[in-house]
Amino acid sequence: MKSIKELLEETSIPQPKPSGGSPPPEPERYRCSFCQDRGIIFDGEVARPCTCMNQKKLENRFRHARIARSLIQCRFEGFDIGYYDPPEHRENAQRALAAAQAFVASCLSNQYGLGLLFTGSVGSGKTFLAAAIANALTEKERQVLFLIVPDLLDELRGTYDRRGEATELDLLDTARSIPILILDDLGAHNYTEWARNRLYTIINYRLNEQLPTVITTNLSLQEMEEYLGERTTSRLVQMSRVFRLTCEQDIRLRKYQEREGKRM
After folding, report:
1. So what's the architecture of 54-64+72-263 in CATH?
2. Is the pTM here over 0.90, yes or no?
3. Residue 194's pLDDT is what?
């Protein structure tokens, strides 16, 4: 009679053995490469707080400020120009990528300067570039706040219902004065006059103080005037270099099709 172990081995699905030439698995990405997200650094037998803790304190003021887990993997080297056809789309993407890399270099050498405004259709790579900028600067220990515009407005509204926590003025001051601010998805939302005024307050302050800001939107400049007003749009153009990303098909959809096609 066969043992239970032998029966299990007979009915189990054989697993392919790794070939000798297969590459090792990629190392896990950490938000902070210095402490590997532990929050402390060991210097011999002495432990000291990592500088990333200041960044976490900053992000904790907003409930939704952290870069999403899927965006932590965004790096400039992963920005695939191959998704941009025909050539005019590719040229737009190359210019936007070069501008994003130049922006990071500028922020590392100078705390003041122009920002970036990435426009384009849904799934054209705007958020990827914005996240790549945030990751590159955070790894260099720069203070960066990555905010999704609808979440930011929800946070500001929510301060009226929360006691003993950050007030609306606290959050506005943080968004206005943070050295590098990224506002993602400044899209076709239902902006009330209250929301327009809050966004104007942030944008106008950062323009006057020459604090670099990165903004992504699927709106044209004309549409931005309709949704946000002329004074806010004018200031966004004044404080930014504008780049448009274009592609024939939503890149997220293409990646989905490629992923599922491999499973067929």
Report:
1. 3-Layer(aba) Sandwich (3.40)
2. no
3. 95
